[in-house]
Amino acid sequence: MSTDASSLTAQDLELLRRPLYGFLSVAGGPLPPQPRPVWFEVTAEDTIQLFTGPDTLKVRRLRRDPRASIVVAAPVGERERWLSVAGRTTVEPDGAHDLAARLAARYWNLDDPARADDLAGILAADWVRLVIHPETVSRYMY
């Protein structure tokens, strides 16, 4: 395992740009943390963003303590590889619907009418955007 203060490598970005689930943990919760699977996107600024409801428990916890981490792992059948990005997280009121639409296209086949309807339901709801600003990046490759 290696840890780099805050830098994402080209190999890290390659993994993060794939349609994989991330497992998000936020500070201030029960011990041990309770990770949740999430869709995510790495940005041009090397931050990690995702969307969630504005009144969720994770948002309330992040408003008290902005620390969070996301872990992404290669799927079964590939060589073992994972990446953890931890840092201060901001709750942004803008951009969540555009992010949701991009992520739905990344994770779902939107030509499927059922998935297109699912996306319409998502876009009809209120969302905020969570942005993790990397402070610690840990990785493992075998």
Structure description:
This protein is an alpha+beta fold and 142 residues long. The protein is globular and about 40 Å long. It has a single domain, classed as Roll (Pnp Oxidase, Chain A), CATH 2.30.110. Helix 3 runs antiparallel to helix 4. It has helices at 10-16, 57-64, 96-107, 113-124; strands spanning 2-4, 22-26, 36-38, 41-42, 48-52, 67-73, 81-92, 128-141. Strands 1, 2, 3, 4, 5, 6, 7 and 8 form an eight-stranded antiparallel sheet that branches. Helix content is 27%, strand content 36%. It contains four helices and eight strands; from the N terminus they run βαββββαββααβ.
Label this structure with key terms:
142 residues, alpha+beta, Pnp Oxidase, Chain A, 27% helix
Nutshell version of this structure?
InterPro entries: Pyridox_Oxase_N, Split_barrel_FMN-bd. This protein is an alpha+beta fold and 142 residues long.
The amount of helix comes to 25-40%
CATH architecture descriptor name: Roll
Q: Tell me, what's the shape?
A: globular
Return Rg in Å.
Answer: 15 Å
Tell me which oligomeric state these chains represent: single chain
Category from helices, strands and their pairing: alpha+beta
Biggest sheet character: 8 strands, antiparallel
Question: Runs with pLDDT <50, length 5+?
Answer: none
> CATH superfamily, please?
Electron Transport, Fmn-binding Protein, Chain A
Can you count the beta strands? 8
How many domains make up the coordinates? 1
User: What percentage of the residues does DSSP assign to strands (E)?
Assistant: 35-45%
Q: Order of SSEs, N→C?
A: EHEEEEHEEHHE
Give the CA-CA distance, first to last residue: 9 Å
Q: Averaging pLDDT over every residue, what do you get?
A: 94
Q: And the CATH topology?
A: Pnp Oxidase, Chain A
CATH class assignment = Mainly Beta
Count of DSSP-assigned helices: 4
Protein name: Pyridoxamine 5'-phosphate oxidase family protein
Domain Pyridoxamine 5'-phosphate oxidase N-terminal: 12-115
Pfam families: PNPOx_N (PF01243)
